[in-house]
Amino acid sequence: MRKLARKLLLALLLLGAAGWLLLSFFDANQLKKPVLGWLNEHTELDIAIGRLEFNPLHPYKLLAEDVRLGDWFQARQLYLELARLSPLAGHTRIAVLDVIDGQIRLDRATELAALPDNLANITVDELNTKNLTLAWDGWEAQGANLKLNGWQPRRNGDWRWWSDMTLSGQVRQLSHPWLEMSRINLEGRVHRRQLQLDTLRSRLFDGLFEASLSLDPASRELTLNEPRFSHNKLQFSQAPELPEGWTLLLNRASLQDLSITSPWLTANGIDGSLRYLEWQPGALPEARGDWQADEAVLDWLRLDAHQGQLLSNRERLGLSLRGKAYQGSLEAELGWFPQQGRLDIDNLQLLGSKLEWLPDLHWPVPDIRIHKLNLNQAELLSADPELPLSLHGGQLFITDLAWSTEQWRPLSDQARLEGGWNELAYDSLISRRSSFSARLDDTRLLLDELSGEFLEGSVRLSGNLGLYPPHRGRLQLEAEHLALRRLSSWLRAERSFSGTLSMSATLAGEPKRPPSWEGNLALEGSDVFIERLGLDNWLKARLGEDYSRPRQVDPLLAALDLESSDAFIYKTELKGPVAQGQWQLDGSAVQSVRHLLALRGSLDLAGGWDLELGAINDQGCRELAIRLEDSWRAPKLRLHQPALDTPCPPWYRGPVPYPAAGLPGRLIEAVRNLPKEP
């Protein structure tokens, strides 16, 4: 009996050893193909596995390599360790699930097919990822090393990916077309289908970022609590946009040494805080905050060291600014309405600013409302060769004016402009110690007064101009002792000229339609020099010739004769009423060195003339009649030496005297008796 027992025990030991050896050499890959085939056929998982390691002696542990699930999940290694398998109870508990070098495309993920009832409940005690890549909707997270605890993705046969869990870990890089984060550390939980991160730290645009975060996918809401931005260099090629339906909330954000670079805004050295911000697509954010910055550039608007406050709602962006701008001081209250394309300047004050006008300068806002604008002691220098302008000591005050549809209009009956300058130079034209005052109503710009020093003389101007076509207006001008030399240099005329000019004008009409002009115009010139316009020599030559009968003269030949010498005109007086664009000249004359030339007739201010001119002797009688007709550029010229009665009737009785060096007596006789020049 003892021998039988020993043999039976030995046989059992041998069988156990043989079974252990057989199971130790068991190759799970032999079962992989039929098992995967069955799974793909009955569950539509589309799963593929490169290699399996599984020992029946340790049935709760499995290592799979080169795992693929559809086209949205793959991993180099996947390690599974079961804590409990209760097929009859339908509960499976996974103690550890490790995903190594995995990739998940969430935007391609599909619902997993229904699993058998004995897998109705699945709980994962610990899920670890190493070097995981996640991609969705333009976002990509790389190098994610995460740890999830207490996750139940399947309950009562339903998949619940956003079930409660705790999580922690690091992400090497998170990227989006307008966002780049790296070295991310996070710790938090998923609770009631919301991701709540108590700690989120990362590198953001070369700086640091820290916050607590709440993400609610159901309501599409992302909340950052007490975010801190430090030394970030924000760079945008286009304006950031939120996905449709999402809301971004910021509570008590702090900013330290931020910089912004974008096509529309550049700013550096930003410190400040945002008390709150709520941003939804298609509207301005509701926000309130304050900041200070070393500099900011918005299109052509440049601010140096300044402080600012932000108060924004969905329709209006409100800004309060105080600091330095254009080497001067700045205070501003601004409101921007993007849906209307409108900028409200509630208050803008610039003191001691040095402004620059650039060739490509433009104002991008189609609608501006200026409630109060005050510039004091400003300087302006133009870098545009087509606008050679400079201004020193400029002052400008504007209230209740609006610019829209390329038209100024008043916002109230208080709409007005006031200003002046110490010196204004336009090319070679210079004005000093000048001021102006103007008002605007619904139909007219009313210039109460523009006065100051212009062209080394004085000017006083007033009038009004219609805002709408045909822009009918009225002008009153008084100018005294204007220096023509400055005007000659500015015009770059073919013939340079100099002297002084005084002017008086009262005109009404449409600026672009000279035939509509009515009023009075008077010009007085003194000591006028005109290069290559030898009036004295030309008149002397014509008086010495025979024009006893009226004769047409070639105006081109006459012009050539005039260019043979220069003209000195001691005194000029042209005056008369203007009717239908015709300046009626009577009692007008030009006094040269040796001759007095009187004028009668009309000048068409649109570019023509119908004038009778006369070379006057010391008795006021005309001895040479000159007829000018047609256009200024192609005139008709006729000369005549009329017979004179004795005594002759005076043809001119005006204030311009006969020249002291003029020939006495009859001009024709005196000229012909002059000795011939060698």
Q: Describe it for me?
A:
- It comes from Zobellella iuensis.
- InterPro entries: AsmA-related.
- This is AsmA-like C-terminal domain-containing protein.
- The model is unreliable at 1-26 (pLDDT under 50).
- The termini are far apart.
- By secondary structure, this protein is mostly beta strands.
- It has a 43-stranded mixed sheet that branches.
- 10% of the residues lie in helices and 60% in strands.
- It is built from 6 helices and 43 strands.
Portion in helices? 10-25%
Oligomeric state of the chains?
Answer: single chain
How many DSSP-defined strands?
A: 43
Give the low-confidence spans: 1-26
Q: Could you tell me the strand content as a percent range?
A: over 45%
The overall pLDDT, averaged over residues, is 88
N→C terminal distance: 174 Å
How many whole angstroms does the radius of gyration measure? 47 Å
- What kind of sheet is the major sheet? 43 strands, mixed
Structural class: mainly beta
Counted by DSSP, the helix tally is 6
Shape: rod-shaped
InterPro entries: AsmA-related
Protein name: AsmA-like C-terminal domain-containing protein
Organism: Zobellella iuensis
Compact description:
The chain is mainly beta. The relative contact order is 0.03.
Describe the SSE topology.
Layout: H1 2-24, H2 29-43, E1 47-55, E2 58-69, E3 73-86, E4 91-105, E5 121-130, E6 132-136, E7 139-155, E8 158-159, E9 165-176, E10 179-191, E11 194-204, E12 207-216, E13 221-230, E14 233-235, E15 247-261, E16 265-279, E17 286-293, E18 295-298, E19 301-303, E20 306-312, E21 317-325, E22 328-337, E23 342-351, E24 354-357, E25 367-370, E26 373-382, E27 389-399, E28 401-404, E29 407-410, E30 416-426, E31 429-440, E32 444-454, E33 457-466, E34 473-483, H3 484-491, E35 497-510, E36 513-530, H4 535-544, E37 551-553, H5 555-562, E38 567-579, E39 582-592, E40 596-604, E41 608-616, E42 622-630, E43 635-640, H6 667-672
Parallel strand pairs: 4-5, 4-6, 13-15, 14-15, 23-25, 23-26, 24-26
Antiparallel strand pairs: 1-2, 2-3, 3-4, 5-7, 6-7, 7-8, 7-9, 9-10, 10-11, 11-12, 12-13, 15-16, 16-17, 16-18, 17-20, 18-19, 20-21, 21-22, 22-23, 25-28, 26-27, 27-30, 28-29, 30-31, 31-32, 32-33, 33-34, 34-35, 35-36, 36-38, 37-43, 38-39, 39-40, 40-41, 41-42, 42-43
